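Write out the 3D structure for:
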Amino acid sequence: MVVNLLFLVLFIALAVLCGWLTWRAIRARRLWVKIAGGLGAGLLTVLFAALALTGGRGIAATYFPGAPAAPDLTVAGTPEQIARGDYLVNLSCIGCHGAVGPDGNPTEQQPLTGGWNIAAAEGFGFMSDMVTENLTPGGKLASYSDGEIFRALRHSINNQGTKLGFMDFLPYKELSDDDTQAIIAYLRSLEAAPSAGVTGDSLNYIGAIMIGAGILPAQPPGAASVQAPPQGITADYGKYVATYGECRGCHGPDLEGTAESALGPAVPSPRPLVGTLDQAQFVAMMRGGVKPDGAPFPETMPWRNAAKMTDDDLAALYSYLTAPVQ
């Protein structure tokens, strides 16, 4: 943060200096100085002011987000909570926070030691490092209270009160209070494992500009309380399955696909394909990672996580994908 604040001060100073030079040029006696100097210094004033304004907004949104207070919460850690948390974490969290292999990519295997640089892997390492955290008690979560972990999942805010970069764009804010507590219970039950390296976010000034300019807009906090729909093979519960199954993080809020953006390439909607399948074909496709025409899912599709879903959850997801978009 200190380096980013220094850049902010620098750009403010340059904007003020160029503004003063613009004023001096306009008051010059020679016409060419008025035109060339005024235009050149004026353009630089606008440039540096824009860099200061957008960078300042990004710094404020990241480091001073007006974070909601962490709730006063102690998770019971019942066997039922731990079992539910095990299911949820191994469906979604493990995809990014699993142990990394020799190539630096996640293996989707235990332990949940993280270490994957998402920013570098997704092509925006120029704006920051976003290295996934160690979620075992051997990582930073050991210094978090249960309420602070709850806030991290619900509002994408760490225990220092700053934004958790990539988490801010994922739909975990919509997890129910009960499921969020189940995840906490499971993470607390794990054996401590050491981190392989430095973890966490390190936003640079380019990243601050992108956030402040709305290219990567900071997301609003989650709701104070979230309740899941009744569990069952319904479209409503299927949408909730798509939330904790991490489908909506890539395919969009309503699984209608996403356009190309600073976060990555366009992602198609699964609805047209799924609409041609019956439930049994859909379940077989998600279990095996192969479409009915024999084409395998692309490597970027984390179908192995979806394959871990229960039959009822996959059936609910099918109901949601084949229902009209609300």
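Residues 4 and 205 are 5 Å apart (CA to CA).
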